[in-house]
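Suppose you are handed a protein chain with no further information: no name, no annotation, nothing but its sequence. What can you learn? This example shows the usual starting point.
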Amino acid sequence: MSKKWQITVPGSTANLGPGFDSIGLSLSLYLNLTVSLSDKWEIIHLSDHLPKEFEIKDHLIYKIAKETAARFNKELPACRIEMTSELPFARGLGSSAAAIVAAIELANIVCDLNLSTQEKLDISSQIEGHPDNSSASVLGGLTISTMDENGNVDTIHIQDLDASFVVFIPTVELKTTEARSVLPDQYDRSHAVSASANANMLAASLILKDYERIGRYMESDLFHEPFRAKLIPYFNEIHYAAREAGAYGTALSGAGPTVISIIPTEIEEQFINKLEKQFPTHEILLTRADQQGVCVVEVKNDVLA
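A reasonable first move is to predict its three-dimensional structure. Written in structure tokens, the prediction is:
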């Protein structure tokens, strides 16, 4: 068995508007772990998006990897982990889901679990509580998923979306618990019917890869965005400016506060240049859908095998 591995997990955006807790899209922004077996636990953070101070026992990677090993009656061996991340914490770009998927893969390789893709989908979604971000990070591409009461995930997997995505990342954090606290406990029937219809149309448009309709229905959410908008810096202004600059559509990335636009690939440069001038307080990144999902590569003599 190899003694060193590199685990790469894409971040993700969830919902894309009305696809609440079910639609996820992997993004070409990554969490990377270099893992080697060791005599003691070490987790070394090598990028600014990761906290400087922490206790190993409280680290999400350690906790989930240990929990995953325990599910299969295995003892997790000590590891040395070097981590880099392009995913800012609590911004709606799937940082926690990526960490969970990475931790499951860590346990899988060091404990010889031989997990199937379905098991990775089920375990990560059970830990997350919903399958949107985790399914996208496991599979790559776009996923439309559901999880039953027993924690079994069913996923439709779509690849090769011919569009680009732009994320508007503010400096403020927004915890998912806070974003969920502003949602209503229930919706009346007519509201629920309209919200469900919009979600259905978004899913159908994604399957058809009808980008103009995708954009239209991304902006038609009735489940969460109307209630969360007040928590999001420049939410309405970004919507308007992105549309004026040629975006197909714009929505919250997950629970926010990041906002994401889907745009034609041919306007990437001019779109970014224009929006960077209008929103200098945001980090604005161009990205595409990752197509591979979680990836593990053996490292031999410090060379990727």
